[in-house]
Structure to design on (440 residues):
């Protein structure tokens, strides 16, 4: 549940010395939510009449071709009412509710679109809202209006009590009259009692209105917001984009490394071997030197290819798992690293690979940016989650700022339902924890 400009309430709390129960009747929030309750009745009537009328009409005409399109029109009308209700809640309740996604149509043609609209759970939740909101709209309107009117009316009663003896034959506001006995508020004690009761109602009304407004928020959130399935689909679409971008970046990196590294070295090696072949006929000693140099180039090219293959998926990870592979990564780090891996079994290769490259990137950051003298890597399992923690005693100050390496790493983890948490105060130490789903 997201509220609007909540920051405006902080200065209010600082500047007012009266306790909140005494301020509540005069706060803008009370009157905004009271206005929402007043509008509940006409809006609920319009929504209820539209839904009941259109659904009954479309059901009655379902035996004809007109019934099904009319049902779609009624559901689209409910969606329009829901859009208005979200805007009203945003303005008066300071409730931000995301718009539901569009209805997804499988197939083409008129019948496919009609079927998608009729089968949309979002459309039917909007229709249910108009039906449920009608009785609640009547209740909230009547309760809020009665409490507000009676509260302020009795509180200010001594100011307008003169109306009764002046314009009517009564001495004051009549409480009851059974023909023989009656009670009207006109004596000083009656006026004092009216003020006391009115004050109590005035103090109680804001909290009653806020409670009913909370029910309105729950209705809007539960029935007019996007469903969990829609949220999950949107999240998966975003994650898919992240995975595609990451894979594309990795392919470009591999292509660049091959082109600028091993490929260029092998081309130069082929040229050197060609020259050595010609040189062997003229000057065998010089040709032998060139062959020896080419042999050294072959070793360097092989090492570059091994490093490139390790960057794609290291063989030690496939053969021996996270423990030995992370120890190998730690051995290449410029600072001493203590590695502890406590896993009952191996996760699936995809999760294992993500954990490996996460630690590799974090240790690279330790080497390049932290200024640390030591670091630790801990890997363990908690229920159905794989936990990876990298800690160093460096200068700190790391963060998930947009565009940073950690932000990109967090996006890659999020694509597999993982989480990256960074705790890095200025001056250190830095503690980065990655949480991944455990899939054995």
């Amino acid at each position: 549940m997201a509220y609007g400009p909540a920051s405006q309430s902080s200065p209010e709390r600082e500047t007012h010395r009266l306790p909140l129960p005494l301020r509540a009747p005069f706060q803008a929030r009370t009157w905004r939510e009271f206005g929402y309750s007043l509008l509940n009745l006409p809006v609920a009537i319009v929504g209820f009449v539209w839904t009941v009328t259109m659904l009954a009409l479309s059901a009655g005409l379902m035996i004809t071709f007109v019934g099904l399109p009319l049902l779609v029109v009624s559901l689209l009308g409910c969606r329009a009412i829901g859009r208005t209700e979200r805007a009203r809640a945003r303005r008066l309740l300071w409730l931000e509710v995301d718009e539901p996604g569009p209805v997804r149509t499988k197939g083409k043609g008129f019948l496919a679109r009609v079927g998608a609209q009729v089968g949309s759970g979002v459309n039917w939740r909007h229709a249910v809202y108009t039906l449920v909101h009608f009785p609640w709209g009547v209740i909230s309107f009547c309760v809020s209006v009665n409490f507000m009117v009676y509260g302020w009316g009795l509180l200010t009663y001594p100011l307008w009590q003169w109306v009764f003896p002046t314009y009517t034959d009564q001495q004051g506001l009549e409480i009851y009259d059974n023909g023989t006995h009656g009670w009207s508020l006109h004596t000083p004690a009656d006026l004092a009692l009216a003020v006391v009761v009115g004050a109590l109602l005035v103090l109680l009304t804001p909290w009653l209105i806020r409670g009913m407004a909370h029910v309105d928020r729950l209705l809007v959130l539960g029935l007019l917001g996007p469903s969990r399935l829609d949220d999950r689909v949107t999240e998966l679409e975003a994650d898919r984009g992240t995975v595609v971008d990451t894979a594309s970046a990795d392919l470009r990196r591999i292509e660049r490394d091959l082109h600028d590294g091993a490929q260029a070295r092998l081309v130069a090696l082929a040229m050197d071997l060609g020259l050595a072949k010609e040189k062997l006929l003229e000057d065998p000693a010089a040709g032998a030197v060139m062959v020896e140099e080419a042999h050294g180039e072959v070793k360097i090219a092989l090492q570059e290819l091994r490093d490139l293959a390790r960057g794609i998926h290291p063989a030690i990870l496939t053969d021996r798992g996270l423990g030995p592979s992370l120890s190998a990564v730690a051995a290449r780090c410029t600072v001493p690293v203590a590695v502890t891996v406590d896993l009952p079994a191996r996760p699936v290769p995809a999760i294992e690979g993500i954990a490996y490259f996460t630690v590799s990137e974090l240790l690279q950051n330790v080497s390049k940016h932290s200024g640390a003298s030591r670091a630790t890597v801990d890997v363990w399992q908690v229920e159905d989650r794989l936990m990876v923690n990298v800690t160093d005693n460096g200068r700190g100050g790391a963060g998930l700022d947009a565009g940073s390496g950690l932000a990109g790493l967090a996006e890659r983890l999020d694509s597999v339902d993982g989480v990256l948490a960074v705790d890095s105060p200025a001056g250190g130490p830095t503690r980065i924890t990655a949480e991944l789903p455990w899939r054995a």
Q: What stands out?
A: Residues 228-282 form the longest helix (55 residues). The first strand starts at residue 2 and ends at 3.
